[in-house]
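USER: I would love a firmer grasp of how sequence relates to backbone shape in proteins. This is the protein in question:
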Amino acid sequence: QLQASGGGLVQAGGSLRLSCAASGRTSRNYATGWFRQAPGKEREFVAGINLSGGSTSYANSVKGRFTISRDNANNTVNLQMNSLKPEDTALYYCAVKNAYVTVIGTSRGWYNYWGQGTLVTVSS
């Protein structure tokens, strides 16, 4: 099970921190990703991190503003979002890959398990 939390309403330029807590079979995962889906748009990759936390990947649209990190002791992956823009408004989902991998996938189908979304709304 994956539990995403931390969404909310924030003004442009503000910050939010999302968390994804893994439990059960999802706690043993080799990569975690964050995706987002805005109304009327496809779900898109935002950021991903490998098991050790030593490798990360970001969508170009969030590079330099978002930071993904993980706390393996607590089976949690966080997404720190700074300098938020109205176009960051979306439902944010976390997902995990629980098979051994050496890369971080950026496609929806690459991940095995998904959490429910947490809504981020950025006002202008």
In short: The chain has a mean pLDDT of 95. The first strand starts at residue 2 and ends at 5. The radius of gyration is 13 Å. The chain has no helices and eleven strands.
